[in-house]
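tokens incoming
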């Protein structure tokens, strides 16, 4: 039976072999992909088209919602979205509506 250190050495050797084999196979795969792209005149956009939806970055900021309810005692507001604040929880919300 092999010792722990021998098994660790075997594992390290296998890890190195796996990394070398992967690198060789990835290189071959990339070569095949490049050959096919050249043969069929493909571009990166043909393979991975741009996503639709909201753009990332500054334009993707969350929009703010106008407040719908006002606490007359403290001046705190609530948009009506999410968890209700303590000052309105369990009370009739009609009394706190902000007149438009």
């Amino acid at each position: 039976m092999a010792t722990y250190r021998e098994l660790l050495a075997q594992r390290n050797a296998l890890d190195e072999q796996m990394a070398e084999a992967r690198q060789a196979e990835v290189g071959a795969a990339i070569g095949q992909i490049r050959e096919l792209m050249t043969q069929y005149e493909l571009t990166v956009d043909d393979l991975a088209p741009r996503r639709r939806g909201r753009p990332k970055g500054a334009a993707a900021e969350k929009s703010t919602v106008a407040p719908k309810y006002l606490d007359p005692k403290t001046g705190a507001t609530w948009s009506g979205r999410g968890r209700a604040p303590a000052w309105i929880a369990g009370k009739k919300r009609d009394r706190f509506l902000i007149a438009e």
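note: The chain has two helices and two strands.
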